[in-house]
Write a structure and sequence with these properties.
The structure holds two protein chains of two kinds. Chain A is an alpha+beta fold. Chain A is built from eight helices and 13 strands. By secondary structure, chain B is α/β, with parallel strands linked by helices. Classes of the chains: A alpha+beta, B alpha/beta.
């Protein structure tokens, strides 16, 4: 963009001419759409009919570029996914940037280009935003907040309280890719098969499942921080039922398993940024699984367990050698700054 | 995954458990020394799958847990008094509570404390900013020591002058002898740690058989390794044999890794060491040799000893000696949980309390 300034300066957050140029030459050009174009303090649009979903999330991942993605792609996908798991069709996003003084301009440009591409591919518009710059040493390169608005179909009712005994638990693919991609990249651990983050927008996958089994999907989550184990425990607690899963049926890439063996992590507690966990009725299981497997982000989808009457609010796992134990929630922090 | 899946096969595991039930007649107490065994045994529900006459006792095999309260407080005092120094530590140490805080809290209050996954991580930090002192808090058994020694040798070779090590290392065989000498606990045989033994060699346990009449089996950490190790030990006990056997023969030899032993000896020499719950054990620690005293953080910063006070009500000492199981501690799963740990055995992923808490048996 700017030919002369190669680095983010405090002036870029001042509200003056540097700010203006940053907004006009970088953000407005990259995110271009009619709602953003007036560059007002707010985006004004006609309200869609029916119910709306509204969500926000902040992204502080370190490093800001990692195999399979970057903080910008993550910020767009993460908020799309938070809408998608509520059954919402994502429409509009906001994007706020907190930038550390001294960030190379080309790094910001790459992040913004990645956001623009992700949003375009996903069919959502970034319609409003903000930029602040903090002094060198007071931030860590770049933090992004995105909020999103989506439209929810009339009768759709997704909630873990709807879960019933006999339902199936399905995951859309391999567990732990994002967590291991960030960790191995950050720590400079070289793997024979490098693991890429699974960071992806999941709204079309979610829609495909909902279309395949309109009344059979009980609840849906994206297992980010805390991983699959935490989502399953939340489901079991809300439903007041027991969830039983089989370790052998949970898809995990060999490279992720290998890294976990070396580093002492459990893939079931690692973050994912492109996966869904669903509970569906027994009757809808085959249709939901088939719909997921025919979608690019659900090819490795698998049924991993069932909901049972059993001990209330407990998740049980049958280990690979055939004994059963409790699968607990994540306690404390497994990995800092992964999203 | 190669070297993993073949040791997690359901049919084989269940078959071995059946064989154990078939041959086992005597009431026996078996100690698994290593925290990684405790973890694997709990994770795969092995304890509960054994007949009731076989009692598994978890031993003092978690390096973070056996680090004395005095040493934990010493680390915290040092961090508070030298905010200018970068402290490199393994992740599990971060949450261990001392008398008034933890490294995690000291970091939040401004200490530059960084988690490394290997001692070489400390070397990288020292290289990046040669103007700052970097101290590696070196906690660990014989498995960790050679890489710490190699790191120190590399730093010397490169002429790096800002890296030093606080050696809190512990040695396994002297602790096993000390446990037997206390007479507080009846142990019929030992499952010995696979990776420690890969370094020191299975021959290091010879005294347990000859002097104490305790058979030993060195086992790997996959569930089938652990079960096979228990089977071999039970078989010895049933037949009245007192041998040192190796189950983990894809990694462990009788003499161990001679190269690693040489690197260890070059940098370290045995010294007395304070163990949580057990007290001072002669020759169970490692001190940095005089030739490397410039890299000895203890000397370089004159680090004084810390307060030797156990957390109130905490029974980690008894857990580490195998006198009680974690659920016999009044704090277990009530006041003391992985989220709010009171004792180190609940903090470390290798700690006995953490393993018991995390992998509670499905009711």
């Amino acid at each position: 963009m700017t030919k002369d300034v190669k680095t983010i300066l405090l002036a870029h957050g001042s509200g003056g001419s540097h700010s203006r140029r940053l907004v006009e030459d970088l953000f407005a050009k990259a995110f271009t759409n009619p709602l953003l174009a007036p560059l007002n303090d707010q985006a004004v649009f006609a309200s869609p009919s029916g119910r709306l979903a509204f969500t926000t999330d902040s992204y502080v991942v370190k490093p800001i570029f990692f195999p399979g993605g970057d903080i910008g792609k993550l910020a767009v996908c993460g908020t799309i996914n938070d809408l998608a798991v509520g059954g919402a069709e994502p429409l509009y996003l906001s994007a706020s940037f907190i930038i550390e003084e001294g960030l190379p301009m080309d790094e910001l440009e790459r992040v913004v280009a990645s956001m623009a591409k992700t949003a375009l591919d996903a069919g959502v518009m970034i319609v409003t935003g903000d930029t602040k710059v903090v002094e060198r040493g007071k931030g860590d390169k770049l933090f992004i907040n995105t909020a999103g608005i989506g439209r929810v179909d009339g009768s759709l009712d997704l909630a873990p309280t709807n879960i019933k005994a006999g339902d199936s638990v399905i995951v859309s693919g391999t567990m732990g890719d994002h967590g291991i991609a960030i960790l191995t990249h950050r720590e400079g651990i070289r793997m024979e098969t490098p693991v890429e983050s699974d960071c992806a927008p999941l709204h079309t996958l979610a829609k495909a499942v909902l279309d395949s089994a309109p009344s059979g999907v009980r609840a849906m989550r994206d297992p980010t921080r805390g991983g699959l184990a935490t989502v399953l425990n939340e489901f079991a607690a809300s439903a007041g039922l027991s969830i039983s899963v089989r370790e052998d049926d949970i898809p995990v890439k060999d490279a992720v398993r290998g890294a976990c063996e070396i580093l002492g992590f459990d893939p079931l507690y690692l973050a994912n940024e492109g996966k869904l966990v669903l509970v569906v009725s027994k009757e809808s299981t085959d249709a939901a699984l088939a719909a997921m497997r025919s979608h690019q982000y659900g090819r490795d989808a698998a049924v991993i367990g069932t909901v049972e009457e059993g001990p209330k609010a407990r998740v049980l796992i049958e280990t690979s050698i055939g004994n059963r134990r409790i699968l607990d929630m994540l306690s404390g922090e497994q990995l800092p700054r992964i999203c | 995954m190669k070297y993993v899946d073949e040791f997690r096969k359901r049919e084989e595991a269940q078959g071995l458990l059946r064989k154990i039930r078939e041959i086992s007649r005597k009431e026996v107490s078996i100690m698994e020394i290593c925290g990684t065994h405790t973890h694997s045994i709990s994770r795969y529900g092995v304890r509960e799958a054994l007949p009731p006459n076989i009692r598994l006792i978890s031993g003092p095999g978690c390096p973070v847990c056996v680090t004395s309260a005095a040493d934990v407080n010493r680390l915290l005092d040092f961090s508070r008094s030298r905010r200018d120094v970068v402290i490199a530590t393994f992740g599990d140490m971060m949450k261990v509570p001392g008398s008034s805080s933890s490294l995690q809290e000291e970091k939040a209050r401004g200490g530059d404390i960084r988690v490394v996954y290997s001692p070489l991580g400390a070397l990288d930090i020292a290289r990046e900013d040669t103007g700052r002192e970097v101290v590696l808090f070196a906690v660990g058994f014989e498995t960790t020591v050679p890489t710490v020694a190699a790191t120190m040798l590399a730093a010397r070779e490169e002429g790096l002058r800002n890296l030093s090590v606080l050696s809190l290392h512990k040695l396994t065989p002297p602790a096993m002898r000390a446990l037997m000498d206390t007479g507080e606990i009846e142990i019929d045989g030992f499952i010995c740690p696979g990776h420690v033994t890969a370094i020191i060699g299975a021959g290091a346990y010879g005294f347990l058989a000859t002097e104490y009449g305790s058979p030993c089996v060195v086992a790997g950490f996959e569930p089938i390794d652990a079960i096979m190790g228990i089977y071999m030990l039970v078989k010895q006990l049933e037949e009245g044999r007192k041998d040192i056997e190796i189950e983990y023969d894809r990694v462990v030899t009788w003499d161990g890794n001679l190269k690693a032993q040489e690197v260890m000896r070059k940098v370290f020499e045995p010294a007395d060491s304070l163990w949580r719950g057990i007290g001072n054990i002669p020759g169970s620690g490692l001190r940095i040799r005089d030739e490397f005293s410039d890299m000895d953080a203890e000397k370089r910063f004159s680090i004084p000893p810390g307060e030797d006070a156990e957390p109130r009500g905490c029974k980690c000492g008894s857990v580490l000696k195998g006198l009680i199981t974690p659920d016999a501690c009044p704090l277990f799963a009530k006041a003391c949980t992985p989220e709010f740990p009171i004792g180190p055995c609940m903090v470390s992923s290798e700690g006995t309390c953490a393993a018991f808490f995390k992998y509670r048996r499905a009711a």
